Amino acid sequence: KNLPCRIFEIADTFVPAESQGGELPIQKTKIAMVCDGDFRDLRGVIEGLINSIGRNAQIDFAPVDLIWAQTGANILLNSQLIGTAGIVSQAVRQKLDFKDISPCAAELDFEQLMSLAGGAVKVRPIPRFPAIERDLSIIVGEAIPWADIIKTIKSKASGELEDIRFVGIYRGKGIPSGSKSVTLSLRFRDEDGTLTHETVDGFEADIVRGLAETVAAELRTV
User: Fold this and answer.
1) Are residues 48 and 103 in the same domain?
2) Same domain, yes or no, for 75 and 155?
């Protein structure tokens, strides 16, 4: 076994013209990615790629049915469709003889990505004050997506919240049926001074209350 596996390819693709007038196929350059990790790993790669080019681009993943995917999403860049991503379905895995992995895949329009390049570069100064990081584990319903969790956190958090990072999901002993435990890491920083742990305790409490109200989350303490 050669695990984990992370591959990508940039290549020209050809799709039939929409009209039936015998026109030549439409040629587009696409970037394809496949990984054998969690879908959030692939999503993180896609978001990182787009942000490295477009910096302040708005990225959204909208659920959609894809013929090859168990769970699929359209990738929207500034509200424009630029690609698709998803978890490869069991039928496709069986056809390709993927017995021990559950791959995720994505395809993006390379030319649309490159259209983001250029413009003014915004540079952030090196932080003068240290950050405080907190790990948070919450129990939510199985159907609650990561996007709803992160949206709630951003809406309830103070301006000192600098970063939210997905850590992992746990299902098993101690977790009610139909639920999952989601662990995430929060990083707080004040640009004007050093934060105290007591202050961050308050920020964290506000976030936990917001998650309880919005997605019925319970704080996991063990």
Assistant:
1) yes
2) no
In angstroms, the CA 1 to CA 98 distance is 12
User: Within its chain, how far is the Cα of 51 from the centroid?
Assistant: 12
Q: Are 75 and 81 in contact (CB under 8 A)?
A: yes
What would the mean pLDDT of 3-28 be, rounded to a whole number?
80
Helix (H) or strand (E) holding 210: helix 197-215
Token pair 């090859």 is at which residue? 68
What 3-state class would DSSP assign to 48?
Answer: helix
pTM confidence score: 0.60
pLDDT in tens, 65-74: 899 998 889 9
Residue with tokens 């690609």: 83
Q: Tell me: do 103 and 11 sit in the same domain.
A: yes
Report helix, strand or coil for 21.
coil
Minimal CA–CA distance to 76: which of 53, 47, 52? 47
Would you say residue 119 has pLDDT above 90? no
Q: Are residues 110 and 12 in the same domain?
A: yes
Comparing CA positions, the residue from 160, 161, 166 lying closest to residue 137 is: 166
Same structural domain, 138 and 110: no
- Provide the number of structural domains found in the chain: 2
DSSP type of residue 36: S
